[in-house]
């Protein structure tokens, strides 16, 4: 009877070791996925700021940059801790698109000239 009591804790120790050995393998893959999504969220924020700055200077030429920011933001939404950063990146990229369109329309209206008053 004394041998049975000694054997039970050993079995429980082995079961606990097996459970803990299996956990790091699964958590490392989720950590890699989260760090990738965190990077995407940060990249979306940076590209969103660049798209706003570029839309004032280059107008519609910055549309591809803003679209990349939106895609990175959508991929970055998978991160739980940086979800807000990804949403801000998406918002900045959309704002960059809107500003680019406005700047292009305003620029074309300001620079419009029918050249009727020119004498050749």
What does it look like?
It is a single chain. The protein is mostly helical. The chain contains 3 helices and no strands. It has helices spanning 2-58, 63-76, 83-110. The radius of gyration is 28 Å and the shape is rod-shaped.
Keywords:
single chain, 120 residues, mainly alpha, 3 helices
Strand content: under 5%
The major beta sheet can be summarized as: none
Principal-axes shape call: rod-shaped
- Give the proportion of residues in helices: over 70%
Q: Low-confidence runs (pLDDT<50, min 5 residues)? A: 24-28
Sequence of secondary-structure elements: HHH
Number of E-type strands: 0
Short description:
With 120 residues, the chain is an all-alpha fold. The protein is built from 3 helices and no strands. It has one domain (2-110).
Write the layout of secondary structure elements.
Layout: H1 2-58, H2 63-76, H3 83-110
Helix pairs in contact: 1-2, 1-3, 2-3
